[in-house]
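not sure who needs this but someone in the group chat was asking about N-acetyltransferase 16, like from Salmo salar so here u go. i didnt clean anything up, its just raw.
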Amino acid sequence: MAGSCVGESDGLTFWVAEQKDYDDVMSISVQIYGGNDYLPHRYASWMTEPDRVVILGRRDGKLVALESGLIVDEGCTVVVEGLRVCPSERGRGVAGVIQRFADQYIQQLYPSVRTKRQTKADDPSAGPTQTLSKFTELGRRAALSFIGEADSFEGFISHLRNKLHSTTGSEPGVSVPQMVLIEDEQQLKNILLDPELPSRVQLPGGAIIQDWQPLQPIKGNLEILARRNLTWLADKPERPAFLSFYTPPYPIPYKGGSLRFNIDMFGTDLVSAKRALAGHFEKVSERREVKGRVMVHVYLNKSLWEGLREFCEGYTGVRRCREYWEQLFLERGM
């Protein structure tokens, strides 16, 4: 086995992941997140991403677990992601073993890290949330999930625009005001570093959550956001009360191959949420970024979920594929 072992505990040896480990990682990732797994697409970029640590756990040479951490917030925080354990090892405490080792290893590499953060999915209908041990809940958002064929998006956009006209009372033939596309780097910087932004758009836990990664709106995180190639929309060019973006759609294993299209929204105004949703669908269609089957997840303030659900109903080409669920934002000290 190439590479070098960086530690061992409880019968496992630990290794820093390399590109050559891809097939082994995929072999323990079958049906992770119900086919919505991002790692098949992101693994290669994780291997070269600055301040990213990916740890593998092996038992007798066989890969049994993976855990990753990204150092953010100017070196003060690690965002943990990607945890997975092979099916034959689940329920044996392997997840806890690799998490403890990863925490120790990351602190050796980055002594300034004081906080560990993560996001997780929660289904409120299943009963009270089982918050992870020693973690504090900083916030939660609602998630609205759809599925449809990319060929249906043009009709869905027309459906949304027609509904916008009726709900805003616009006269026939008069266009509904568009959200503002934020493309200028300095303009976006001014918006994100405004100290009043977290309260004005009600950032959950004071963080911008980008595709499940919580980042404080501080200068040190702007480069991380910039390399995500996000498309930003706001209700106005300065001091917005509603801010949203979408992550470029990426392939996932769902039903043999689909695309995942994630939209993150911050703010509480329903009309702005409707305009943003229509705007993001228009942009992703104009750029021809989607094809085939597309899974759409919209993360938003809980107060907007019902209104946006109603707004999207009535078009058969894009249908809701999951009942109400939530995204939790958690934190603990290292």
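also The chain has two domains: 5-113, 139-333. if thats useful
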